[in-house]
Amino acid sequence: MTSPASRPVPPAAANPLNLRGAVDLSSLKQRPAPPSGPGPAAPGGPDAPGAAEGTGAAEHPGRPLRVDVSEANFQELVELSAQVPVVIALWAAYSPVSGQLVDVLERIVESYDGRLVLGAADIDAFPQLAQAFQVQAVPTAVAVVKGQPVPLFQGGAEEEEVRNLFDELLKVAAANGVTGRIGAGGPGSRDGAAEPVAPPLPPLHQAAFDAIEAGDYAAAAAAYRQALLEMPADAEAKAGLAQVELMGRLQPLSVADTDALRQRAADEPDNLDAQLGVADLDVAGGHIEDGLGRIVAFIGRNFGSERETARIRMLELFEVVGTSDERVAKARQNLARVLF
């Protein structure tokens, strides 16, 4: 059985993490570097002592895994996210809390021994980034994995919550083939090359992993089903199957499709397909309680085969979220109430 860190966990399994975010970073990656000159200085930014080459940002003495994000180095950070997840902390000088959070995130990121990199982004100096990530307030934390945005949280957060999110972020990254580690010198150092750290997967799990990376969720599901045939007690395969089936259901949906689906679910509360579809969207987007609660409400209103179909889907989503998650425990209690 694989360890949690090496299990291919798709975006939907992470707390509020979702690799299917609608943020388009391509325009930012293609943006030319601005001309050199004075500008707003970030804490420990390029004007601070210790600024160096490499990513074009500060390489802080004793702070090797923090980079100050600018238009000049953003593309390099996006490219780096193919090797190691890049956490972006968006802050502003008018918000002292946001600056404090950056320092806390820096300390937490350093404790992950090179498996994460922190980018501190001053939204006054780089407003295009705030627009791209649809930032509504500071501080806001997002991540980039393989060039794709992963929402983390907005506002303050307790250290334990942040660590839980980062643990889930690393699972999302592993599911997408991002398992590198940055050397002690930081992203711009000579020893900063990524080094594989995940242990080998069993053959069928590796086949599922490869299929996920290729976007072939049907093939990934087939590999997990075969793994379950050979070892019915394989909890990792059971969870993986539920996850890739969810990803397969979401893959063909466009933004227009999701908007239409949500409208249909609002207009037709007893439409099974619409309610299950929106529950999928909610869970994949990190709105776990909303998604599970929607199915519980449907089951409470309906009977017969549709109720059983909804119940089975809910059990599958329990696997996606994680059966030990407290939100799943709460949903189980609510499900028992409407069933019995």
Can you describe what's shown?
Helix 9 (255-267) crosses helix 10 (272-284), helix 10 runs antiparallel to helix 11 (288-301) and helix 10 (272-284) packs parallel to helix 12. With 340 residues, this protein is α/β, with parallel strands linked by helices. The chain contains 13 helices and five strands. It has helices spanning 26-30, 74-80, 96-110, 127-132, 159-175, 203-213, 217-230, 235-250, 255-267, 272-284, 288-301, 305-321, 326-339; strands spanning 66-68, 86-91, 117-122, 140-145, 148-154. Helices cover 48% and strands 8% of the residues. The chain folds into two domains: 11-175, Glutaredoxin; 203-339, no CATH class.
